[in-house]
Input
Amino acid sequence: MKTVANMKVCLLLGALAVALTACDLLNPPKPLPTEPVTQSAENEFVTFARTALPAVGKDAVFLVHVEVTAKQELELLAVSEVLPAELTVLTGETTTFVANAAPGDVLQLDYSVRTSSQKGKFEISGFSRAKPTDAESLQLELISPLEVR
Output
């Protein structure tokens, strides 16, 4: 009799565990980060940095800040951001340039983005192009992962 009762309890506990797992109650989602993260890349001409949240919720709005700093005299300094189709730019610009940049000059972009209702892992990528005097231009890419939960 005890064996039958123990089997019923085990079956009940097993069914409960399956139900809780299906509802993600045993694996609650990680809290969304509240502090933005800065990622950067550099070469001999520029430092390229992007600051944004690494994870956001569905249908969320968040800010992206980009800075490209000249390390030497440049005839042209440009930056352009590329977002996946699941992200929509609400305000701000994603491309800018300046002619005749001096060492220490900074190009900045600030824009707000809305995520779609699609969860997933995406990338915000950007390209900086620097052209020094009497030299070929050089492109630098920066990729920032973004998780939409």
Remarks:
- The domain at 31-148 is CATH 2.60.40.1230 (Immunoglobulin-like).
